[in-house]
Design a protein that fits this description.
single chain; elongated; alpha/beta; 11 strands; 378 residues; eleven-stranded mixed sheet
Length: 378
Amino acid sequence: MSKIIAFDRNRKNIAAEHTDRGLQAGGVVMRRRNGVPAVTPINIGTSQDGATASIAASIVVPTRGRPQLLNRCLASLVLQSFEPDRFEIIIVDDGPSNDTREVVAGWAAHTEEKGGPQVTYIPSMGPHGPAAARNHGWRAARGTIIAFTDDDTIARADWLRNGLQAFADNVHAVCGRIVMPLEHTPTDYELDAKNLETAEFVTANCFCRKKVLEDLGGFDERFRFAWREDSDLHFRLLDYQANIVREPNAVMMHPIRPAGWGVSLQQVKKVQFDALLYKKHPTLYRRKIRGNPRWDFYLTVGALLVMLVSLPTDAKGVTVLSGLVWAFMTGRFCVQRLRKTSKAPGHVLEMVVTSALIPPMAVFWRAVGAFRYKVGFL
């Protein structure tokens, strides 16, 4: 049966409203259940006496303003080759909208009629961001295992079953496999996005025991963008000495979304959260994210500043030298980005322009992060 769940600002109580014709209000109150031991075996079958078995897994999907992608994702989730009464799907709408609500209501009505898994809609009134949205979702979940994915993914039919089967007695978390199909020479944005295929831990395809999430306190909601919040959870799992295993047969398709011209400039703002991740996990950050500071960006920006400051003075030699250093470093960065990417004229022009803008923007946002989170971060 479909339902809406609303959180108060302190998230101490969860109100679950059973719906009439999809999404009308009721008055049932759900309270959080106690977690299970971190190494409790997972029974993915039905009970021997034929009775309805308890929920084994809860799939949590944060979303915001992408109803068409969410509709495609939900279509793959409700068709999982897994007992429909053994899992549930929780959609957390991080920017509550009627369009998203209608998509979820439609699937909830469909699964209720066809005997599929329960589909739940949670409107998040804040705090916002994918980390907070996932916290809303897993805290409302009934399953002992939480399966995380994103609204722009497509699950293979055996994704959930294979992911759950990887939970041996001593396993705390499981990482599935991301597949990002791309048949043409990629753009810089597409090549960067495709790195998800080889990422060590991503929330687009991971499973975690609810008890472990309770022990860790869930996701750090200071990561307000879709950036580094999964790395932070991964690093805390490592500190927790969690046993994390990979299950290549738990496959999630992740088509690369089209992006507008200059999309990389919009992405640069996320760099500020590297400072927060570094503050929390300096050793792991240097080992797994970036071993050394971005000296190339600092040199580029330093040369640019020297050139601009010396330009109105009589120090022509300094202006020329610093200008040459800036041009060389900018050109070097542009060539690096074009090496394995499209050489279409429009893309080349985009790389030229954005390669000049990214270093100063990145240095600025890294400084913002260092100041905001009070950490010496280069």
